[in-house]
Specification:
226 residues; Rossmann fold; 6-stranded mixed beta sheet; 4-stranded antiparallel beta sheet
Length: 226
């Protein structure tokens, strides 16, 4: 379970202070598929970065599985990101000089997994996303949809409990976007908690729950309000 309690995030830009999140309270249960929506600059990505351990709040606490991650030291935070969270980004964030298999193995290298086990786990993750025939291909030899599936396989390889998807279809055409959304839904049915940031309202409706952020504040919304 994820509990965001009274979280604010304030950035200092020159002489100005910008409030990205303002006293946010939010609970996400294990196994939920949540879409976070809102206009650019509303605080969507800031919230994801905080819960994902990529940033720390100015005030408040973020409790994940009973542990306040906002108080973790750097080493423990790295372990949290590596073992609890899987990240999927709009721009894929793949190494162009590495094969699909090598890209997927990267989190396992950071985790200290042995070489033989790395290959087995990476092959299994690529099989889950339907790319077992592309393991030797590099990103520039694959379509955008295939690259995003490699990114999802990389997110899965350490068997995290939470997957963050930041605009996962933003660089894809509608057909590949639908494939990625179906894949995320399938993973959610298998028990993964999915938290997706998106501008696409039609895709947001495919989540089981929607949260809207505006001016750094959150609001629970029903599908017919979007």
């Amino acid at each position: 379970m994820i509990e965001v309690k009274g979280v604010s995030k304030i950035y200092t830009m020159g002489k100005e202070q910008v409030t990205a999140l303002d006293n946010v309270n939010l609970t996400i249960k294990d196994g939920e598929f949540v879409a976070i929506v809102g206009p650019s600059g509303s605080g969507k990505s800031t919230l994801m970065h905080l819960v994902g351990g990529l940033d720390t709040p100015t005030s408040g606490s973020i409790v994940v599985n009973g542990k306040d991650i906002s108080k973790l030291k750097d080493k423990d935070m790295s372990k949290y990101r590596n073992q609890t969270i899987g990240f999927v980004f709009q721009s894929f964030n793949l190494e162009n000089t590495q094969t699909a298999l090598e890209n997927v193995m990267m989190p396992l290298i950071f985790a200290g997994t042995g070489n033989r086990e790395r290959k087995l786990k990476a092959n299994r993750a690529l099989e889950i996303v339907g790319l077992q025939d592309k393991i030797k291909h590099k990103p520039n030899e694959m379509s955008g949809g295939q690259r995003q599936r490699v990114s999802i396989a990389r997110a899965l390889v350490n068997e995290p409990s939470i997957i963050f998807a930041d605009e996962p279809t933003g660089n894809l055409d509608s057909k590949n976007g639908e494939l990625i959304m179906n894949l995320l839904s399938d993973l959610n049915e298998k028990g993964y908690t999915i938290i997706m940031v998106t501008h696409n309202m039609e895709e947001a409706k495919k989540a089981k729950r929607m949260i809207k952020i505006r001016d750094g504040q959150v609001q629970e919304v029903s599908r017919d309000e979007i």
